[in-house]
Amino acid sequence: MLAINQSRGVVSFFLGFLLCYALVAAYLRSKCYRDPSSVFFRPESARVLTYSTFRKAQAQRFGDLAALHSPPKFSNSTPPELCVGIGSVSRSGFSYLKETLGSILEGLDSLERQRIYLVVFLAHTDQSQHEDFRQPWLLNMADRLPTYPDDPEIINLVRQLEADGGYEAHARKQKIDYTVLLDECAKVNPKYTMTLEDDVIALDGWYHRALSALRTATRMTKELGRDSFLYLRIFYDGRLLGWNSEEWPLYLGSSVAIFLVEVVVLAALRWRISYVRKAITLPIFFLLCCVCTPMLIGLFFAAGRNCMLPKAPGVHLMRKYGCCAQGLVYPQSQVVDNLLPLYRNTEDNHAAVDTFLENWANSNDGLRWAVTPVLIQHVGGKSSHGAGDQELGSLTDDMPFDYSFEMNDPIRLAAEHRLWISEMNEWEST
Question: In terms of pTM, does the model score above 0.85?
Answer without folding.
Answer: yes
